[in-house]
Amino acid sequence: MKILTLNCGSSSLKYTFFDTAAAATLADGIVERITIGEAFIVHRLAGRAGKPLRREHPCPTHKEAIDLVLATLTGEEAGAISDPGEISAVAHRVVHGGEEFTRSVIIDERVVEVIRRYISLAPLHNPPNVAGIEAARAMLPAVPQIAVFDTAFHYTIPDYAYIYALPYEWYHDLGVRRYGFHGTSHLYVSRRAAALLGKQPSEVNLITLHLGNGASACAVRGGQSVDTSMGLTPLEGLVMGTRSGDVDPAIPFQLPQSIPLALQEIYMLLNRRSGVLGLTGKYADRRDVLAHMEEAASSDDAGAEEPGSPYRCKLALEVECYRLQKYVGAYAAALGRVDAVVFTAGVGENSPKVRALSLRGLEPLGIILEEGKNEAAPRGREVDVSAADSPVKVLVIPTDEERVFIEDTVALLDGAYDLPDRFEYSFQRADYQPRER
Ligand code: ADP
User: How far is CA 221 from the centre of its chain?
Assistant: First the structure.
């Protein structure tokens, strides 16, 4: 089977093209600046030496972007196939599946209708997902399309953890509750962690930390999600690249008394201009933050008013890591026994500094990092960075959400699929070889 996975964001589209017979990624890439103007594709064909292909092409909507992906995949220069008819299935990442979707599904009219209905719960995320599904269905009408939901892995969270202390009718009538996101990533790394610990998923308690541009923590008991830091939307919880995470919910109502901002503008500011970007005033990428904070003297707040100053960068890192430390502590309390803390995604996989700072002072909980192993952890590999005598292991596990997309798709089309906690993935087996990076 040749499976195309599509991950449509508001202005970007990430894709991979996978051959299950060869167990290999044939091509992958990204289309950026969709709907914004000056859109371009960056496409990598496996085994092709040199730089990835880069082409500019107008993409006023996601339809043109998917067209561009299909044309590139079948093109002469860096194509992986000669005809779109060779695509066996398309798997779409869908951010919000509400309470309706507790597992991946084959897309039909009703599924599209429900995903569309959830736009009211996820106004920033589900519209590009729906646009991608509609465009792909129109272009490849004979090809089965699958939806894989960010929320599905979290369907096992108990009511006392997903209900907000708000009027109960808001939950019952309007669906206002914690849903959680990054589910495919938490699922993948938790199953890998169990395999690395030599156990079954049902035997392990874990705290998984997906730290990318967006970031979320998940408490996993017996292989199932029992709590997570993102909520009704991906805004809640950890400090992220541009999202605030937890704040006093009164702030959006107090702020307009001091500065003229409409509620909707504040919502966008909390999502797009807060977090690390809001604190530094200049950088959302932690590589920039880490590079600039090095110059900050320990007690010096010189430059506090200057965007991007070493002081502001150091402060952003400390705020981000202190929030992480609190979530790890809270989830250790929620779980009682923790077998491992797992770091994944861009920041979690690549920043020893963030790992060290966020676990600082947690030795009394049995979480002991070994500095040397943490600093020397090779990129793109699964590594144990905890001290040999640490009761709780600390693991770095590169995530592979596409692997979940592909296995769900194959199993759905074979009629062998089940709920995430009853379904056995290849990557939970001890002999599984993770994707090379
Ligand atoms: P997303 O899929 O949410 O965009 P990723 O998991 O790709 O996120 O992570 C992207 C983020 O990872 C970047 O914004 C950057 O902050 C961070 N990152 C990548 N490499 C490093 C590194 N070497 N050190 C620190 N942070 C890094």
Answer: 20
